[in-house]
Amino acid sequence: MEEVLPQFNSAVSIDCVLFGFDGGELKILLIERNEEPFKDWWALPGNLVGSNESVDQSAFRILQELTGLTDVYMEQYYTFGEVDRHPQGRVITIAYYAILRLGGDKALKPLSTFAKRAQWINVRELPRLAFDHQHIFEKGLEKIKRRIKHLPIAFELLPEKFTLTQVQNVYELILGKKLDKRNFRKKILSFGVLKELDEKQKGVSFRAATLYRFDKRKYAKLYGKEISF
Amino acid sequence: MEEVLPQFNSAVSIDCVLFGFDGGELKILLIERNEEPFKDWWALPGNLVGSNESVDQSAFRILQELTGLTDVYMEQYYTFGEVDRHPQGRVITIAYYAILRLGGDKALKPLSTFAKRAQWINVRELPRLAFDHQHIFEKGLEKIKRRIKHLPIAFELLPEKFTLTQVQNVYELILGKKLDKRNFRKKILSFGVLKELDEKQKGVSFRAATLYRFDKRKYAKLYGKEISF
DNA sequence: AATATAATGTGTAATTATTACACTAAGTAA
DNA sequence: TTACTTAGTGTAATAATTACACATTATATT
Hints:
Two copies of one chain form a homodimer. By secondary structure, chain A is α+β, with helices and mostly antiparallel strands.
């Protein structure tokens, strides 16, 4: 986020696209700005890079300030540097996406003064965004579309124990298309990184599905093997 | 390149990894620095982002100043922002790679004052590099390894007319491994983006190979088809 | 207790893609 | 004419992908 700076000339900021999976929907975290420019608009959370932190540190700090979370999959994906992208000066922004496990309980931390509130919003129903944030979001979504095929980021979105149908839902939401159930299961299980638990889904009407767990140890062994989920 | 700045505090620069294919070798362009810090060291070409140019414009300007070339495949791939990566201040650098057709004739343009000379150097025989440029180079090489499988960047390295063996050489150099000739040809031709010319290689001892041309129109039609060279 | 409901969970055949592998053909140079 | 060097070609085995439909199970309702 590039907030109002008293007469700045030039700065570097971080903007974050935080993805979460909740209620069967893919959502991102947006804040409603409380300051000019773009007061009352929705925007991606972000902030300036401090002079004594690396850009990675800055991204993790911003995430932590916003959500209180520290153990999150986060990756830099592009730097946006059009001259006029910020109306009040030159701000080059480095975009990160992060992938969060949304437990309904996970409250957002107090926000900085330039935001009224923060909210998880379905990526299919985004409002108009401030600055070039629509563009930044779109590039981020493209990025995770490519990533999900090669890295197990889907499991970062899911709770520790999940059903195969939930995994498939995540893939379908991110890729934006339906997948065949039998083929999907065959493939996802073929990597041997899911562990079937001796446990069933609870609190659900109708037949309960078997729960699985992602096995990081087994995944680590595949490193360099060019797997393709 | 982050040159000596009189007492700067903070800046954004561009560093470029320029790849070229010449004499059967994959090379990058390096400059020998003529200024502190890292005087007499080899470094990636780069410069500061001007206040009235976008970061993309800046990258193309630097490329053009260095080589005189404008019609080149160039892509941003990562931003490096460790606090101490430049000994004289905070410099966040945005890395681009570019892919150049090296015609033996293509002379390098006059260099800026902080470089003694520029030279194309085989990526397998790189000297120690200034700053974190070794790291920046390695990330760039990884990037084009992934890219070459999905985008026709190999053809950006080759002359307009080329033989299939030359294409294979480019793939082998970038991927760093040998490929089977028959399988490679079958695959590369199967995309239908190479046009066989009614023309043979010239000036070569031994049997001359058939020349091919890359067909951008046909490639454009494949857009979105997820092809995998 | 019986029934309706809704999601789980499973297999096979056809097609396509990938891999491994070795010799003949053609042009040049001596 | 011969030796040399690179070009150019096919097939069989294996692996991966796709298309496709129904019985099973747990719950909720009557």
